[in-house]
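Q: Hi! First time doing this. I have a protein sequence and I read that you can turn it into a structure. Is that right? Here it is:
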Amino acid sequence: MKRYRRRNKTVFENNAYIGAYADISFDITSDTEYGNESLHFDTRIHYYEKGEGEPLLLLHGLGQSLYTWRHNIDFFAENGFRVIAPDMPGFGYSGHVNIFYTVEENALAVRAFLDALRIKKTHIAGVSTGAICALCFAVAYPKRTDKLVLVTPGGPNENYPFLLRFLTTRMGEFMMHTFLREATLINVLRRFYFDATLLSGDVAAQYYEPYKNKEVRETLIRTVMHFDAEAARAALKTMQKHVLIFTGTEDRLHQKEDMRVYPNTIRNARHIQIRNCAQNVHEEKAERFNAESLAFLHKES
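A: Yes, that's right. Below is the predicted 3D structure, encoded as structure tokens:
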């Protein structure tokens, strides 16, 4: 089922990470006035894999790609893990499918991706909407989930940049498809960092590159329109997995009381707040994130 295919574009700035593709298939069942309806979907997932050992799946967040894990992949691969970082469906260089891109649909795609790579059980680290997807996956498939590392779990809300919230309108959709430029995207991304100087020219170019594809823009629109974390949050009390949660003290996008819900509700959760850091803890404070996560993943449950 797995198919590897070399690609022409580089994903990372040092040209070292090329990546491969895996073909996946999954079914989405929904209730209609005529009863249950099941739709079948096929697509390709672009991913990068490195290392040997226990699997560690890295799920990026809203509007990102696997590029966001550039400071983490090598570290975990060098410390005994088989690291797999995919571009989530529709983002980065993965295929776009005609779905709503809800958390639940992404969890189905993650399961299909793991099936394609013949991975039966894995640790999962996720950021933002990727963290919510990790939670949803762990609830739906507990036997396939080991430990979870969550970075600022959440998604679009009233504190997100206006351009992202504006995507829920027809005018916003039109503006995204017609006028998105690299400078516009970087202005949005600045809200996700405490130290905006980290968005150098190379970093900005790598983040913008996938958005030259109109289908990636469409994926972002659908994700913002249909993001809903309520099902995942409602299941927190049933979570039996060991969970490490990171948040930044300077996060301007998520209320602190919203972030506290996760460590306060999950039985086996530990919460680490990082100073002088916003949402993307794994990027801004990669050394601290890597060290704390490694100790957590190696610790016996």
